[in-house]
Design goal:
mainly beta, 6 strands, 0% helix, rod-shaped
Length: 73
């Protein structure tokens, strides 16, 4: 059996040796929320009128992508 190709080199240096790449993706569908007549700061003690039913609306879809590249010398 033959050996695997060592990968790309610059001069005598194997540039991808001991390298790792991780990609993580998270996707959330519309999370329930309660619409109000005006914005209220989280933790505020004042009350505000609710538009519609509690948890009767949905937040927009959200997607998060994380990229981590590491190389040991």
């Amino acid at each position: 059996m033959g050996m695997a190709s060592p990968g790309p080199k610059i001069g005598k240096v194997e540039i991808l040796k001991n390298m790792s790449i991780n990609i993580t993706s998270k996707v959330y569908s519309g999370v329930p929320c309660t619409p109000t007549t005006r914005p209220v700061q989280i933790g505020a003690t004042d009350r505000v009128q609710v538009k519609g039913a509690p948890f009767g609306a949905r937040m927009p879809w959200q997607q998060f992508v994380d990229l981590n590249i590491a190389k040991k010398h």
